[in-house]
Amino acid sequence: MNISPDERDKSIEAILAGGLTRPVSTWRYLRGMYSSLGIRVIFWESAPAMLLSAVVALGYILLTAMQSAFLNAEENLSAMLFLLSPVLFISMTVSTEAIERMNGLYEIKMTGKYTIRQITAFRLLCFSLVGTVFAVTANTAVYHIMTVEMQTGYFFQMLSIALCSLFLCSLLIITVMRKFRSGWYLGAIIWAVAAMLPGLIFREAWNTFLLNIPTAVALGIAAVAYILFLREIKITTKEVYSYAHS
Amino acid sequence: MLIVDNVTKKFGNFTALEDISLEFQNGVYGLLAPNGAGKTTLIKMLTTLIFPTKGQILYDGVEITQLDEAYRDMLGYLPQDFGYYRNYSPMQFLSYIAALKGIDGNTAKQKALQLLEIVALTDVKDKKMRKFSGGMIQRVGIAQAMLNDPKILILDEPTAGLDPKERVRFRNLIADLAEDRTVIFSTHIVSDIESIAHRVIMFKDHKLLCCDSPDALRGDRFNNLEEVFMHIYDEDGVIVELP
């Protein structure tokens, strides 16, 4: 290949410029994206997906509450809380992604200044925050309406388990989404199998196991999972090659 | 200048394109080959949707992955299957795409109005797109690709589904747009590019067959590019003889 002196100079300038420019931090980048696009564009056409997610989450709560009432198995609430926030997180992620993939604009949105992958990373961050708020709300609600006596320590134990499962789920989903083209639903399937199977197979034993996880351990796992999740967000917003192999 | 430098793209064991080298300057470049020849693969690499297995793509001497956002800022793209929001008007749709391209609201509005005039959709700028014909949708597609005044405009089979009158209109529009930018136009319909392409690119067995002007390809032997095409590819798109 013959490169003209002009092109060679431009190439050197670009390399130097790349080396000398102070890299923009992920949070500054995401803030910039938010102020440039605004919440309406970031969640464009996502209202039906959000509505569907709320219905799925409420349906899940009702189903578990009915099961607990009929079977008089209030102890199962720990297993329910373990799955609740991830159910909301997954339904929000899968439904918004499904809308994106089906509208035929995905390729155009990959060639914009802000690619749809970067926007999706921002959305996942928002979903994890919504999931956290939901976990706290659901735990508080259970704390107040449960008929069995519940101590404050138990509340924090349940909350730590809920956050632990939410952040592990978030980490799994974003990692699989980043690495595979079909990751947006593949991650959901893997999580559903991994999280529900122990409950279906071991039943009481699984519930007892969850109840016996020390709060500090659950919070520690949740913190590590969230840090790794944020790292994945950072990679997704920065990397160009991620979709090269998809 | 956009340079494709010894690029190979493989999907598993299948080689979609092998050792392709091309240089693009201002003007219309027609990618002319039967379906499945690798046109869309090349276009997806030029639009950073996929990346070469070997080789590199450079813009002004810098690899496009390194340019990242700066490269996408120069890019306008109309994919083969152009999706749109049926319940939005062209103005709303263009405002949304402009936001994704990082264009501020006021500039976006002005640019959208200007482009809708160019593509002759001013009268229906606030009408919902669900009632639009295929040609009108394609024109909205062209407008969205032009929002950031791209230096590289890439159109994948843009005339598919257009009626003859709309095709002529579309060709004229492309010719106008190519005055100060690179337009890469993929098609398997010869007449689409014969009159407007400065260079015609053809593939053979997933390798580059030629990149030449329509005049040079016709030479003295053929009356038009259609004859060249028919001479090169048989009904199944297999090369039978070189021009």
Would you mind describing this structure in some detail?
The complex is a heterodimer of chains A (246) and B (243). Chain A has 246 residues and is mainly alpha-helical. Chain A has helices spanning 5-20, 26-42, 47-71, 77-102, 106-110, 116-145, 152-179, 183-202, 204-211, 215-238. In chain A, helix 4 runs parallel beside helix 7. Chain A has ten helices and no strands. Helix content of chain B is 36%, strand content 26%. In chain B, helix 4 packs across helix 5 and helix 5 (105-118) crosses helix 6. Residues 237-241 of chain B have low confidence and may be disordered. Chain B contains ten helices and ten strands. With 243 residues, chain B is an alpha/beta fold. Chain B has helices at 39-46, 64-67, 69-73, 90-100, 105-118, 134-146, 164-177, 190-194, 214-218, 225-232; strands spanning 2-11, 14-24, 27-32, 54-59, 62-63, 75-78, 152-156, 182-187, 199-204, 207-212. The longest helix of chain B is centred in the middle third of the chain and has 14 residues, at 105-118. The relative contact order of chain B is 0.17. In chain B, strand 7, helix 7 (164-177) and strand 8 form a beta-alpha-beta unit. The two termini of chain B are 28 Å apart. The chains are: A mainly alpha (246), B alpha/beta (243). Chains A and B meet through helix 1, helix 2 and helix 5 of A and strand 1, helix 2, helix 3, strand 6 and helix 4 of B.
Percentage of residues in DSSP E strands of chain A: under 5%
- What's the alpha carbon Rg of chain A, rounded to whole Å? 22 Å
Strand content of chain B: 25-35%
DSSP helix fraction of chain A = over 70%
How many strand segments of chain B? 10
Cα distance, first to last residue of chain B?
28 Å
Annotation, overall tally of beta strands of chain A: 0
